[in-house]
Amino acid sequence: MYGGREYTDTASSRVFRRISRPKIVSRKKWKAENAIGKGKEHTISYITIHHTATLQNEKLTIEKKMQNLQNFSQSPGRLASGKSKPAWFDVPYHYYIAVDGKIAEGRKIKFVGDTNTEYDPDGHALIVVEGNFQTEQPSSKQRESLQKLVAWLSFKWKVSTTEIKAHNDYAATACPGENLKKLLPLLRQKTSEMKRAPDRRR
């Protein structure tokens, strides 16, 4: 169910469930500043998973994490790798999943995200999961939220499950870390199952 509605596969006359939007902390709720300048608009064709490459922090609220990320993003600086970055238009990712599983809206999804690696993020819905998954494990709540978010985005934007990939499928980087990357086959499988599942309440 999505927005209280269902849809029918006309070829088979079967009624299918629309995948619900997960609960997302809005930009307004975390008190986002305005974007800087003008962003490039795009249409979503891919879903790409990243990690923050910083250790999980259970003490900060997701609102504070997003404020910190936006402040860092909109200022020239250095990444964890030591590589310099320019001031970006806004938060580079479209969605952020905190260690407690809460999801926040980042950059407006109609605008192309940013990257400091060698790939073109045009058409990519960028999801970042809090943590360094070379050394840490995604929390159970993060895994649950990632599944819900990916399935919803795949349904909403008609993204094939074959286009649900990791940052390092496109660029020479360790991101999103081995411990998150290895979860992607199951993530794709479950997303496919959720999109095919009939609504049995009828």
What does this structure look like?
With 202 residues, this protein is α/β, with parallel strands linked by helices. The protein has one domain: Lysozyme-like, CATH 3.40.80.10. Helix content is 23%, strand content 16%. It has four helices and ten strands; from the N terminus they run ββββαβββββαβαα. The protein has helices at residues 62-73, 140-156, 178-181, 184-196; strands spanning 7-9, 14-16, 24-25, 46-51, 77-78, 84-85, 95-97, 103-105, 124-129, 164-166. The strands form three sheets. Strands 3-8-7-9-4-10 form a six-stranded mixed beta sheet, sandwiched between helices. It has a two-stranded antiparallel sheet with strand order 1-2. Helix 2 packs across helix 4. The longest helix has 17 residues, at 140-156. The protein is globular, with a radius of gyration of 17 Å.
Relative strand content: 15-25%
Helix content: 10-25%
The number of distinct structural domains comes to 1
Taking the alpha carbons of the first and last residues, their distance comes to: 12 Å
Q: The CATH topology is what? A: Lysozyme-like
Second-tier CATH architecture = 3-Layer(aba) Sandwich
- Unreliable stretches covering 5 or more consecutive residues: 1-16
Secondary structural class = alpha/beta
User: What is the average per-residue confidence, as pLDDT, rounded to a whole number?
Assistant: 90
